[in-house]
Amino acid sequence: KKILVLNGPNLNLLGTREPEQYGHTTLADVEALCQEAGARLGYAVECFQSNWEGALIDKIHEYGRLYKAGEALGCVFNPGAYTHTSIALHDAIKGVDGLPVIECHISNVHAREAFRHHSWISPAAAGIVIGFGVDGYLIALEGLVRKYGR
Ligand code: DQA
């Protein structure tokens, strides 16, 4: 079965973007670590990043279909700033009906600006991992497998 590690806007800049907030690890490093961890847990991890809201929605739809076909376990999703703005991503997760999505944030968004305190994704998420740095992706992966894997 497959697991999707999905990253939203500006996360392609990981490693050089506000390192005091997000650290020095690049997205390629994070994706390689997720693939390793997934393999250890017995899953094939696909990684996808886009700065475009619609591309993220299309990917969630694709995994909704794979989930229904029994070919996907779920998704780890860092929606970036779309967390705080996107009803469309909320609706996409609700719309595929079933696919477990673990919301993941590198930084502790609740310790930051007020505009980061609200998430449109959380009410549609199967679980949330916040504030563990890039280790959060691995924690979310393991949590997904522990809660939904066989
Ligand atoms: C983030 C937090 C968001 O507020 C921000 O817009 C990001 C990254 C995080 O991983 O901490 O792009 O999702």
From TrEMBL:
Its EC number is 4.2.1.10. It comes from Tepidicella xavieri. GO terms for molecular function: 3-dehydroquinate dehydratase activity. Substrate binds at N78, H84, D91, I106, S107, R116. The active site is at Y22 (proton acceptor), H105 (proton donor). Belongs to the type-II 3-dehydroquinase family. HAMAP family: AroQ. This is 3-dehydroquinate dehydratase. Signal peptide: none annotated.
